[in-house]
Specification:
Number of helices of chain B: 0
Order of helices and strands of chain A: EEEEEEEEEEE
Shape of chain B: globular
Distance between the termini of chain A: 36 Å
Order of helices and strands of chain B: EEEEEEEEEEE
Number of strands of chain B: 11
Helix content of chain A: under 10%
Shape of chain A: globular
Structural class of chain A: mainly beta
Distance between the termini of chain B: 41 Å
Oligomer: heterodimer
Number of helices of chain A: 0
Strand content of chain A: over 45%
Helix content of chain B: under 10%
Strand content of chain B: over 45%
Radius of gyration of chain B: 14 Å
Chain lengths: ~110, ~110
């Protein structure tokens, strides 16, 4: 089954404690992306990657890091989380060649206290 | 950068009434996509429109792409409680050798039984 998986699905942490949210897709997609979703603000892109070892900033990259060492994985790293990073995070992937459907993961709800 | 405006932000309708959400882009788009996010879920692809003036239907849903490829609409006829959720448009534009997908903020639809 074609899917994007994220882990963990829920996470409560404290300010300053480094965390990683994993994302993996099984569709051999070149393009992967991270979004955060906040009430009234819609989906805002954090980082994206066009292919392995190629990453770029989205609209709200401050406080986040990503890496793309393998095609299927695109982890999101928060080196020093702060309460304003409390949000719902979605990973997504799509095929760059075939301009079309973007697949989203189930989401990770992060709370930073 | 490219902006995609979507209105209204919220819509409450009585079951059986029609519903329309509108998207407007600041730039000409390669295509426009529509996604639906059920409460507690993740965005799921509905459809993609590519051609100027294109109209597509999915049962009670009608999607339109403007002649100038800068605006789009989603119309639902005779809403049902299963239509509840947030509807996002996403404009795809090309530039600097890549395609970028920019999401509108979404329209949250509530259906009163």
């Amino acid at each position: 089954e074609a899917q994007v998986t994220q882990n963990p699905r829920y996470l409560i942490t404290v300010t300053g404690k480094k965390l990683t949210v994993t994302c993996s897709q099984n569709m051999n997609h070149e393009y992967m992306s991270w979004y955060r979703q906040d009430p009234g603000l819609g989906l805002r892109q954090i980082y994206y990657s066009m292919n392995v070892e190629v990453t770029d900033k989205g609209d709200v990259p401050e406080g986040y890091k990503v890496s793309r060492k393998e095609k299927r994985n695109f982890p999101l790293i928060l080196e020093s989380p702060s309460p304003n990073q409390t949000s719902l995070y979605f990973c997504a992937s799509r095929n760059v060649q075939r301009v079309g459907e973007q697949y989203f993961g189930p989401g990770t709800r992060l709370t930073v206290t | 950068g490219q902006q995609v405006m979507q209105i209204p932000q919220y819509q409450h309708v009585q079951e059986g009434e029609d519903f329309t959400t509108y998207c407007n882009s600041s730039t000409t788009l390669s295509n426009i996509q529509w996604y639906k996010q059920r409460p507690g879920g993740h965005p799921v692809f509905l459809i993609q429109l590519v051609k100027s003036g294109e109209v597509k239907k999915q049962k009670r849903l009608t999607f339109q792409f403007g002649e100038a490829k800068k605006n789009s609409s989603l119309h639902i006829t005779a809403t049902q409680t299963t239509d509840v959720g947030t509807y996002f448009c996403a404009g795809l534009s090309s530039g600097a050798g890549s395609y970028q997908l920019t999401f509108g903020k979404g329209t949250k639809l509530s259906v009163i039984p």
